[in-house]
């Protein structure tokens, strides 16, 4: 835990003195010594309400920043999408640094292909059927009306009628009627 924390503070360009104090705070926190004794279910609220100065105890600032990160995968999904065939099953064990390097090489290659296409007079945008590629803005109201009129949604587990049971339920019902 200390190693990962120090790697993060190195990326954040924290001073060595602040990082050293953070390590001391981590050790105190791990054994529940003051001022890090106690806790509550909402970790972010606990750290924000902890009555210590974050300059004297940088673990408070570190924890607030980490707990404020919104957990979602959109940025990573976008990265994997941009990597295209670079990231797949056989290569999923690449280190972060190698993945970053491959992503940069791929982006640079795409950039140079784009420049070559511009020079050769080739189209630089893909032609697809999203709304923003049509001549007129907005949706085709005729198609929307036709879809609205013709579309019928049937839920996958809806029964045709309550009188007509099928499957094991109908057998149980019939057996109970025979008794």
List keywords for this structure.
single chain, mainly alpha, 8 helices, 55% helix
Oligomer: single chain
Could you tell me the mean pLDDT?
Answer: 76
Count every beta strand, where a strand is a DSSP E run of 2 or more residues.
0
Q: Determine the structural class based on helices, strands and strand pairing.
A: mainly alpha
How many helices? The count is: 8
What percentage of the residues does DSSP assign to strands (E)? under 5%
Unreliable segments (pLDDT under 50, ≥5 consecutive)?
none
Shape: flat
* C-alpha-based Rg, rounded: 30 Å
What is the helical fraction, as a range of percent? 40-55%
Characterization of the model:
With 179 residues, the chain is mainly α. The chain has eight helices and no strands. It has helices at 2-11, 16-30, 43-49, 58-67, 74-83, 96-120, 141-150, 168-178. The protein is flat and about 70 Å long. The relative contact order is 0.04.
């Amino acid at each position: 835990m200390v190693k990962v924390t120090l790697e993060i503070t190195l990326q954040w360009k924290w001073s060595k003195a602040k990082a050293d104090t953070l390590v001391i705070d981590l050790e105190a926190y791990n054994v529940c010594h003051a001022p890090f004794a106690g806790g509550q279910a909402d970790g972010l609220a606990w750290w924000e309400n902890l009555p210590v100065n974050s300059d004297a105890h940088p673990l408070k600032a570190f924890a607030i920043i980490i707990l404020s990160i919104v957990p979602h995968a959109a940025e990573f999904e976008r990265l994997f999408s941009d990597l295209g065939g670079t990231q797949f099953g056989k290569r999923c064990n690449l280190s972060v640094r190698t993945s970053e390097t491959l992503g940069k090489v791929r982006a640079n290659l795409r950039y140079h292909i784009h420049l070559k296409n511009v020079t050769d007079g080739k189209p630089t945008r893909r032609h697809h059927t999203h709304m923003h590629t049509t001549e007129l803005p907005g949706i085709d109201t005729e198609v929307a009306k036709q879809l609205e009129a013709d579309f019928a949604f049937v839920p996958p587990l809806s029964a045709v009628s309550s009188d007509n049971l099928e499957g094991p339920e109908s057998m149980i019902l019939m057996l109970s009627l025979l008794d």
